[in-house]
Amino acid sequence: MNTALGSDVSTKTPESLGLLAAIKQPESSEVIDVDGDGDIKLSEDKDNPVSLEWYYEDENNKEVKLTDDQTKTTFEKLVKSGIYPYIKVSGGVALTTKYGVPNFQNYPDSKIAITKTPYRNFNVQVGGEAIKYASPHMLYSATAYSWGDRSVFDWVDWNGFVAQNDYLNNFPSVGANGLFFYLITENIDNSLSTTKWIVRTSDPDKGSPGAITATVAKSEAPRAVVVGGFKAYDAKNMVLVTLKGPDSSSKGANRATAPKANLPVDIEIIGETKQGVMLSYSFRITKWFINRGEYIDKLQEQKDWCNNLGDYKLASLRELSNANFLLHQDKYGNNPDNYYKRAVHGGLITEWGGLAYYQGDKFHNPTYGWTSDFSKSTGDPIYINMNDAALNGDRDDQHPYYALCSSK
């Protein structure tokens, strides 16, 4: 329909489009005359002429006609109020042939049990951002925690990572079982009640223990407020995406195991709204992490726990953070600060933010976690702040800290 209109209708009103109903003659493959007379034509019933009217579906999926005031309201405002207008063309019609007795058939016609007036609905797509943001935990995301490019990461109002043209630059690039984020649209209702979602992955062995995928569920905006750090959008404009993949058989046992992650894996999340708008968001996971739940321990014990999982090891600082740690003499790009700058490909905490805020993923709330690196200046082990990924190297390896294991 929008192709026929030839423009974005966001700032226009239904009334201003000035649309009229017209009858298109059927193709030969669309009708049949058992007598083989041919020359079939379609015309409107003068007693029940074809009309064009504007409707929308309410929250109970019932058809409601737009009021006069609503037809004078811009599509953009209608959509923001939860009204998604569509065109309904309906009326009585007749098929006629040049020859034959009879040489016509009216619709509707109670004699042949067709009592419903013929109609067709046409969706109008209102311009807006399809997938605008992928929004993870945003508590530590002020200007100081950003590179400053809002076309990549929009920290204003806790919006999140902006969808990129190249899916390889989309958030997330790393993950762990149970981590979640919100897919945000603007001017498009993407809620489960109006949109059908499917998830596709590039993994040919989708049923294996090492498979990584995602689920799409109804957004829980109130939870975002209660937990803290998640943007509370209108529930119509957000769905919850949760990563699913390998996890450890136990968090406490010294001999816990975990399936090898099937990496890399491309994940595509596809939605089709009731209005016919196609939504798609893709990303590639290249690194997978497993946490140790609520258990903290000395450095060597945490290394051993990760190694015993199988195809995992204690994560390095660069697998977790892009902070600039001067004592390590390993400056990360042009980051002048010893805390993360939110970015894709910048490490687990850099991408996802404070891990303990993700309920259901078994990341608990210790302040610090061990890395596998040592300070090149002092020789001390480097540990990381679990909230802003700041790096430290001023304590010995006997302190009890958290463990994050990364895929080899």
Can you give a write-up of this model?
There is one protein chain. This protein has 408 residues and is mainly beta. The protein has two domains: 2-123, no CATH class; 133-407, no CATH class. It has six helices and 23 strands. The mean pLDDT is 88.
Brief sketch in words of this structure:
This protein has helices spanning 2-5, 68-71, 75-80, 221-227, 299-308, 348-352, and strands at 41-44, 51-57, 63-65, 86-90, 93-96, 104-107, 119-123, 133-135, 153-154, 160-162, 174-176, 180-184, 195-201, 213-218, 238-244, 265-273, 278-285, 287-291, 312-314, 368-374, 381-385, 391-392, 404-407. It has 408 residues and is mainly beta.
Residue stretches low in confidence (pLDDT < 50, at least 5 long) are: none
Give me the side-by-side strand order of the main sheet.
9-10-8-12-15-14
So what's the overall shape?
elongated
Strand content: 25-35%
How many domain modules? 2
What is this structure's SSE topology?
Layout: H1 2-5, E1 41-44, E2 51-57, E3 63-65, H2 68-71, H3 75-80, E4 86-90, E5 93-96, E6 104-107, E7 119-123, E8 133-135, E9 153-154, E10 160-162, E11 174-176, E12 180-184, E13 195-201, E14 213-218, H4 221-227, E15 238-244, E16 265-273, E17 278-285, E18 287-291, H5 299-308, E19 312-314, H6 348-352, E20 368-374, E21 381-385, E22 391-392, E23 404-407
Parallel strand pairs: 11-18
Antiparallel strand pairs: 1-5, 2-3, 2-4, 4-7, 5-6, 8-10, 8-12, 9-10, 12-15, 13-16, 14-15, 16-17, 18-23, 19-23, 20-21, 21-22
